[in-house]
User: Fold these one by one.
Assistant:
Number 1:
Amino acid sequence: MNIRNITNFDYLLFLAVSGLSVIGILFIYSSGVNADGVSMSNEYIKQLVWVISGLMFLFIVSIYDYTKIGDRAFLIFVLAMLLLVYTRFFGKSVKGATSWIGIGGFGIQVSEFTKIVYILYLAWYLSKSQNEKAFRRFLKAAVIMGIPMGLILLQPDLGTASVYLPIFLIMCFIAGLPLRYVFGLLGMTLCMVIFMLLPLWETTILHRPSLAVKVLGNKNIALLIIFSLMSAAVIAAIGNLLLKKQYYYWISYVFGIAAVALSGALVGSRVLKEYQMKRLIIFLDPQSDPRGAGWNIIQSMTAIGSGGKSGLGFLKGTQSHYRFLPEQSTDFIFSILSEEWGFLGGLLVFILYAVIFFRILWTIKKTDNLFGKLIASGVIGMLFFHFIVNIGMVMGFMPITGIPLLFLSYGGSSLWTAMIGIGLVIGISLRQL
């Protein structure tokens, strides 16, 4: 498929991405300035290089015919999975996760680039499997998600792994899979997280024993409950097959979700580190551990609150320059921006992101190629999840998961991944009639 019309190039999308990237460089520079006004970091220089090279990747990807990627998608996916396995055993450990490979000071986070590979392969499969039975199609798609997600959880990197789920759900919705499958998986995931965090919630927030925790905290009782739920689901499924009664289907549906969720919670409580689970629950009451897990949220909310309407002024923030904010050039970059540019600065970031989301939605709406439509939906799923979780995290509405704010946060791998994703969307737009 050739480029139809160069005027189809999405200049508005490109300008919004460029604007966010420039703002990111400014505040990465600000994050490296100390209380005496002296720059103590060269991260902004690296970010500038990554932005320029990332924009080059964006143009190259947008020019390349995305439809030619489909036939190579499986091979690329297999290679990416092998790289994830290699990273798990031979990668470099950073902040408790073995997520990086590289030589010397140069390294890449394979799990970031795998997001694009995953989107491409899942889009290819969903576009080619329209004639398969819906449940079979959903299960295969879930396996495509589960492989990279599981390998990343083994690193362990909960934040990056969590991005794969919303991408999957949005792409399945666009692909026309029944909503009961999509919402079933979402409900199962939420239940699994709740079951997994109940014991920690009791000790951290509730400070008193509860019946639910006593039951779920006992492995033997939990296994008995799982067996009972699964048995009920199987019996109801048989009843649906024999008697053709719809309510048997929904009984099987609910009990099956509960059984799988509880099973996943038992596994997750053994895979995830305690500090990771504590991060997920401490946002309910940061003051329960103000100098530990709650410190990051408290300092971030303080920085955002002190910015007021128009901020304290560029390079005049206190929380960042006195080093109260942790990970201030990556996870908490929006806190610095809000402190120095205030509500108006935050609003500017929101507007630029809104432009990106609406332009991608417009591309999804107007493209007549299902493969392209699914790719664009995967990209918006990735970008929106990063945006909503990071902003919610720094404002104290969501748990801290180490998810960066794409285009603003410091980091080459995440920036290049986002740029490649935007390049794919622009390439899809370029090839429309």
Number 2:
Amino acid sequence: MSNTSRVALVTGAGSGIGRACALALHAAGYHVVLAGRRLDALAQTIAQAGTGSAAQLLAVPTDVGDPASVKALFAKTEQAFGRLDLLFNNAGMGAPAVPMEELSYEQWKAVVDVNLTGPFLCTQAAIRLMKSQSPQGGRIINNGSISAYAPRPFSAPYTATKHAISGLTRSTALDCRRYNIACGQIDIGNAATDMTERMAAGVIQADGSTKVEPRMNVKHVADAVVHMASLPLDANVLFMTVMATNMPFVGRG
């Protein structure tokens, strides 16, 4: 099947990595469903795709942590395009960088809802659709994080949920073989987005110091996701790390 007839769904598509990947998939010929909390941000992503793109792009305001909202998202995807070939579970958030014992339950739960429950709900819905469509199958890509392996100070909710995403990736890859559904994960280090802007001023390190960290163009992440998506379903990138070469990851601490 050519990319011109493929359908991708990107969560967190209103900014940052999600926006860059949605635009790259669209440029590669995909119809793209853009999910995010704010319709105005999704509209800005569509505007950046250029004129004449409206028929290939669908914005659906979504709270990925809410089962009803996710159900509506996938129903609208099927109604608009008839199938789904790629889900990019990208939506994510962090909590304030404070000692673990000072985090509130509400702060913890908010991160878990978006970073873990959201991908689980979207994966469930994608599997159901991909199982039932003809031809059967598709691909799911999860946005993990190198923080799952080498956490930053004061990042317990983010680190815990991203570590859990690696387990979700492995379980999905195993359980979905029979349905011709591939699942992989991309772990990203310091892509230059609004979320990492603070790194230009310096972020806290494991030894308590504050240092400026190198960042990389977010385009490299988008290109990597398009590459993962372009593989035939009998091939899969299970885990990929894309990072700023000189960032403190190998040897962090």
